[in-house]
């Protein structure tokens, strides 16, 4: 009853309390104002509260006190709420008052800032008014200073030009050089006054003085004549010293005149010193021929030894006069050689003398580069050296050590002088690295005329190949025998490469590489000439293997298979060696020709030669077995009565194959021996079926004998790649393996022969059904061929054909077997050629030390 009275005070289902506050609001209040009172909890339940405080009727006796306590608590809460409301009302009023005061203060601050801005603008206007006159005075002062500076510089320039004119007239070059540099520096400040008449006049005056100074200095240098005759022209030491001082000062003037005048003076001076060289070694000179190459370079070294100390006495060191004179000498020498060599016809040229001249030029260039150029590479230093007189140094250690000591001492002295001048700021960087390199300046003139040298190399290679091939010598030093001519050919090529690269690695080396390719083509033709006449005649029009004796009837001489093996091994050796030779040439030749070096066509050519020789071996072996194969179909099988061991023709065929195969295994590499087994089997095994089909009126006993023979032949051919010396067991020393492809081919082909023999021995009444089972793909012509061997008449053949439901057709499976020889041989040729083209290392197993 009590619980029912409080039912109306229960919470509503919408989650709101009696005062209508949302649950989230109440949770927020709890977080802000935490309370431990049960009445303040969000999950407060009035019914539970009453039941907890008044669990039974007896507890209702204290309900009056409980109500009083609640009323007291409610009054306290009302007082608190009233007090809080009054405080909040007073705080809101105070906040409004504070807001009004803040707005008033902000307005007052704004007015003060505006007043300050107005005062600042007034102050700025006053300052600008005050400084206006000061700026005008400042501009006037600046212009006045610029004018005074320009006038001072103009005065200095006029005085310098006047002094320069005076010093020039007096040939006082030292002072003139300083004045000329000062004038050039002063003119820089008047670049913006180029339209002023006075400046233009001064420019013209200075230009005239520069031209006059140039003429005077050139005249002074010409007046001393060749330096080698200086002591004769000026016998007194004081006179020579005066000349040195005057010319040294003149060089300072030339530096001030600019690089154009300096280059012109250097060229004139060098030409003056080389006049006697031009008379002796130039066109029409006494020593103009190639035979005077030694004295040509010795002349320059002698000249340099006589005048180097003298020219260093008055020429500035940064002019590099010794190097420039060497460059000018090289230019003149190149002109001489081009004219002298170009005047000769190719057949008139002495190749030995030409090569000696080129070698002497290279020696001179390498020594000059090492002597005059700081960037000389150590690898360019030749094993031979040149002394101060231009002669090749004796390779004996004492002579070389003495020469090196003198040269090092001279180089150390020159470096010390350069460092001293750098410390004294006397060395002007003239970018001497921009000078052309001496390397190749003379030797490059020989390249257009090396045709005679290339022709000589070609002639020597042709002669060597022809002589060696005629001798027919065989080299047995390697794992396999090859013609000695191939070893000699690559040895010659190795030496030829050394000779050529010692002289040049450019166009001439590339042309020589083309001659190597011609040599390889020529050698391949010589190898083809070793083939039997009928085979080589078929290849005369080109290296087409399919044209090599298409009917495979080729009789070999005694031991001719050995010669064919030599051809195969030699072709294999050449094909293995060429890729590494190509790499050697690419390494040594100039980078501009790197991409053009390729010997793949020559490699293919030697592969073709090896394949052609292999085809001749196969054809020769087949020809030697024709008598045994003919015995198969020439035997009168109609009267055969007993089945014995294998027939005589099988035994003889095995004996011939035993000797032949054993010899080839010893002579050929594993790759080519496997190639031989594949080609021979693909060509010969189908002929067994052809021979069987040539038989006539074969009885049933004969078919049993032939089945025994065919089984023996099948065993023989399956063991052919590993046939031993006795012909009955697999060789224990053979490294040749039987491939699954080879076994499958022999098994399938011999199975066809066995099926045909079984059909031949089948009774006539079972022939049709047996043919359908044993030869499901057979044709009418196949069936007709079997009936011909059985000896059936034509009327009987027609009846059986009608029973089989076929008519005679122009082609059939057995007819295809007759043409299978050429098809299978061609397929094996293509497969083995692809296999033979696999890359080999240059240091191969055969004569690996040739290159």
Automatic annotation (TrEMBL):
Q: What is its main location?
A: membrane
Membrane topology, from the record:
Peripheral membrane protein
Membrane-spanning residues where? none
Instruction: Give all residue intervals belonging to the Vps53 N-terminal domain.
Output: 43-469
Recite the UniProt keywords alphabetically: Endosome, Golgi apparatus, Membrane
Query: According to its record, what are the GO cellular component terms?
Result: cytosol; endosome membrane; GARP complex
Pinpoint the Vps53 C-terminal domain residues. Answer: 705-792
UniProt cross-references to Gene3D superfamilies, sorted A to Z: Vacuolar protein sorting-associated protein 53, C-terminus
Note the coiled coil stretches, chain numbering: none
UniProt lists the family membership as follows: Belongs to the VPS53 family.
This protein is called Vps53 N-terminal domain-containing protein
Task: List the taxonomic lineage.
Answer: Eukaryota, Sar, Stramenopiles, Oomycota, Peronosporomycetes
